[in-house]
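The pair is quoted verbatim as follows:
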Amino acid sequence: MSSAWDSVRKWSEQEAVEYANLLHLANDAILVIDLAGIIEFWNRGAERLYGYTSGEALNRCAHELLKTSFPVPLDDILGWTRRAHEWNGELVHTAKDGRRIVVSSRWSPRYNTNGELVGTFEINRDVTWQRAARDALVAAEERLQLAHVAARAWWWEYNLGTGKLSRSRDVSEIYGLPPGTLQPNDFEQARGMVHAEDRHKLDDMLRAASQGFTEREAEFRILLPDGSTRWILSRGRLLSNQEPPVVVGIAVDITERKRSEEMRQRTEQLATLGRLAATVAHEINNPLEAISNVLHLLKGRPAERDIDGLIDMGQQEVRRIAEIASATLRFAREAPQPAKVTLSEMLEGVTSIFAGRFRSRGISLETRFTTRGELVASPGELRQIFANLIGNAMEAMENGGTLKIHLHEARRDGKRGYRITISDNGPGIPADVRTRIFEPFFTTKAESGTGLGLYVVRELVATYEGRLQLRTTTGAPHHGTTFSIFLPACAK
């Protein structure tokens, strides 16, 4: 044992041996080194921790052997040890097998008989896993903070007993304030910045959360100093093991989501208006053509023929155009007003519009109405449904054929109603077209079609809680297409 050990008083050989044995029993690594860092004592705890035997370590520089990484310069540590008679900190050592070991190190000074510092007495405890856990926790907290900032979110805690509020981070910038302006524990300040019309939502959420352990949430606006608003979603719940009770939760700035929702709603409305405008153009074309035909007939009609009937037909088509125009205005204002409708009369009226075109194409019409089919609905919408389907059937029979329309009472899902079938014996709908005919803007009519007819028909039937079905075949001799519509008797 080094002479440094008896620098204060003379040790007997027996006392030195007993003292050394006690140090060897310690679990921690115990080192005695001089000011140059030379190891004078190395206990068994150091052997276990670092892997070097006492013979390998003695008389070697500890800082070179262990490749010590200091948190501050070594001279600063020695200076602190001299002044305070102790230094505590964490060092990073390298074991014999190359492992990096973090130790909690405690240094005590050793003096000679003249009171001069001659070395240190060190106790090192392995805290590698604690350091790793602490670093992982710090990293996790940093990632959480980064995620909160990126998501514009934060955790909060509200003490129901003291009325104090705490947050996981500073959110002054979300409230339109310079960093650090928003007081972290001032609930009344935060509540005061909630829009007056929405303040009750925050209060109701906290009240409901404080009365049970289920989550409660609220969406409310905050009023920024410049007069603008932002939307906040806050969700909280009561902690059952706190006294006084505490409500904890998370808040998220959802302003961008709200703006996106508003933009999507406006986009959908514009798209619907665009579809409606195209549909109006498509629907007005038919009555205009009918009016043109009536005027043509009137121009060359002998006096003894039914002039009044033709005039009535023309007026009926003018009224239909007016109804379509009114329906366009009602789209932006209010739902179409329902009225009592007789389906048989409506079907007869629509087919009469196409009568001239039926004759010119060589199409015969067969109707079978076993009921009058009375229900309350929008006449213009039903007329639009029938006109689209009858017009499509007529165009499918370019070389003539038979159009069959059948109206009868029916039941579906326990509801009483009426079924209307419109059938043609045209070529049928090919399989590749069949899967897409209800898509908006899909058409097989090139520039003459809008691709909205069947889409509109399906949407209108759905608004009456009805059902639209299609049967079609392209094989001879029974080729053709049938559309079947079920309308509940009390649809609206």
User: Anything to note?
Assistant: The two ends are 105 Å apart (CA to CA).
